[in-house]
Amino acid sequence: MVFTDAKETGNPIIFANDSLLALTGYNREELLGQSINFLVEGGADPETRAQIDAVFGDRADTSAEICCRRKDGSTFWAAMFGNPVRDRTGEVVQHFASFVDTSKHRQAEDRLRFLLDELNHRTQNTLATVQAIALQTLRGHADKEVVAAFEGRILALSKAHSLLGRETWTAVGLRELLDQILLPFGLKNGGAARFSVEGPAVRLQPKAALTLAMVFHELATNAAKHGALSESTAGKIGISWLIEPTPKGERMQLRWQESGGPPVAPPGRKGLGSRLIEGGLAQELEGEVRFAYEPSGVVCQIVMPLPHVELDRSG
After folding, report:
1. Is residue 121 a part of any domain in this protein?
2. Based on the number of CB atoms within 10 Å of its own CB, is 69 exposed (0-12), middle (13-18) or buried (19 or more)?
3. Which of 101, 127, 154 is where one domain is finished?
4. Fewer CB within 10 A of the terminal residue: the chain, N end or C end?
5. Domain that holds residue 288
6. Sheet holding 92-101, edge to edge
7. Element (H, E) at 277
8. What is the chain's Cα-based Rg?
């Protein structure tokens, strides 16, 4: 910890305890009288200076994470916590600051980030290998429609993995997931007028993101083959959702509604896509799905819990 003189330019150090001396390698005489910036790596950098000014301002309990410099030239990261010291009149006469070495924490974060990057890379390679093996195996033994369906499902899963990888497998935005999965179906490639997407900003946990990626892919694929997207221009898809509280947390109600396509009728039997949607939501997310085959188009209603849902404030 240190005390600095708030009345002098640069907040010169007037006291440093033994722990700070051991952390930085300086002796007391080398630090006393030095500006607080003396301890900071890149102290002249505008962004760093702004952080230091905030810590050594008039507000209590301010903090910043700063890269500091030792006497031997090595650096370390420290969380700096500051408080002003006032005299009887309320004027700030000194500043108190404590330094907490966060280097090991930063190293652990860097290591974890490296491992996640490596895991994401290997997962993508594995999915690509699975796709290549399956295509080689199926070629000549299955019709082109089956091969294309399998390839599309692998690609949808790969896109969801990529999104989660960029977010260190914490959560991804529902709208961002829709943008990626529906991109091949024209959502952002001149066909945006055929889609309407409306709902509050919400972020999905990994299991929910992966499951919904497959659900949206199956719905869009069916629409392209038989529903609203099978017509050249007339068909449209409306996607909307809302979040409501429940005794156990929150849940999301999502509606996928097709219109303007060819007339539809209930299928004679459930296809693999329908079974994937219903089974995935029921088994993985404890959700429910209801299909309605209205003359104007297919309607799919999804209800699923959102435990500890994190709202996306980024817009």
Report:
1. yes
2. middle
3. 101
4. C
5. 105-305
6. 13-16, 2-5, 92-101, 75-86, 62-69
7. helix 272-285
8. 29
- Specify whether 91 is located in the same domain as 209: no
Nearest CA among 101, 92, 102, 100 for reference residue 4: 92
Please give the model's pTM, rounded to 2 decimal places: 0.65
Tokens for 217, please give them.
């892919």
| Position 310 in a domain | no
The confidence score (pLDDT) of residue 3 equals: 93
Tokens of 104: 């090991």
Q: At which residue do the structure tokens 């104007």 appear?
A: 296
**Per-residue pLDDT reduced to its tens digit, 231-272:** 766 889 999 999 998 888 889 999 999 998 888 878 776 666
Residue 275 belongs to a domain = yes
Sign of CA dihedral 61, 64, 65, 69: negative
Of 116 and 182, more confident:
182
CA angle 293, 298, 302 (to 5 degrees): 100
